[in-house]
What does this fold into?
Amino acid sequence: MLEAYRTHVAERAKLGIPPEPLNAEQTAALVELLKSPPVGEEAILVDLLRNRVPAGVDQAAYVKASFLSAITKGEVVSSLVSPVAATEILGTMLGGYNIEALIACLENNALAPTAVVALSHTLLMFDAFHDVDEKAKAGNSYAKQVMHSWAEGEWFTSRDQLAEKIFNSI
It folds into this structure.
């Protein structure tokens, strides 16, 4: 998988264009490598997981979220991706397949603080909003933090301020 990907990257570089994101098959192969990483390839494997699998709801994102979710539940172990790192990476996926896993992390005291940060900045919650709300109403302090963050609009107010003047008029 790595050799084929490196060839792809080189071919695209010759054309002056970036490599395509990993597809579901490549992501599945990456997951297997992350479970038992070849020596010397650790950094590239983590980089591919973090940066070359598209966020959202395509099949590669599903494979990525499933793997990371399994790590957070202790079902899978990777020497390269801790449960906290898995939670953090889930938080970069923008919404979709990562949401259920992040909400489940609110029940794990070791992962919940990271899940709170991730969920606080995730807007594409759809009906999962109600799951967080139910947890908050049931007394889950981490879910309450997420609800408070959403109410305060921290997903927006935590961003850099816009420039006073974005462009000069002609």
Observations:
- The chain has a mean pLDDT of 94.
- The chain has ten helices and no strands.
- The first helix runs from residue 2 to 14.
